[in-house]
Amino acid sequence: MKNNKLRLQKIINETYEEEAALINVDTSEIIIKGDYYHNKISEYIDGIFHGLHYVNVSYERLPDQFVTPDMDLFKMCKFYEETEYN
């Protein structure tokens, strides 16, 4: 952690954009993961940021990142990968 500030990033599954995760960039810890249908994940992540702000926790929100199945972050988040059947 740099400057005692949490560095957080929302990771979005590019192949299934309803699925996302919030990670701590410095520790590679997945804070929360889910999808819109089951978890309303975007609202949940926004709520985490509002809560951190409310209790005066210092954090930096990095830009959202879209990931594809060939990326390490995709695998780390264990995102759903739809396979094609021909």
Q: Would you write up a description of this structure?
A:
The protein is α+β, with helices and mostly antiparallel strands. Helix content is 28%, strand content 35%. It is built from 3 helices and 4 strands. It has helices at residues 36-39, 41-54, 72-77; strands at 6-13, 19-24, 29-35, 59-67. Strands 3-2-1-4 form a 4-stranded mixed sheet. The N and C termini lie far apart (46 Å).
Structural class by secondary-structure content: alpha+beta
Number of separate helices: 3
Q: What profile does the largest beta sheet have?
A: 4 strands, mixed
Stretches where pLDDT is under 50 for at least 5 consecutive residues are none
Overall pLDDT? 92
General shape: globular
Strand order of the largest sheet: 3-2-1-4
Radius of gyration from CA coordinates: 14 Å
Terminal Cα span: 46 Å
Q: Percent helix among the residues? A: 25-40%
Q: Beta fraction of the residues?
A: 25-35%
- Number of extended strands: 4
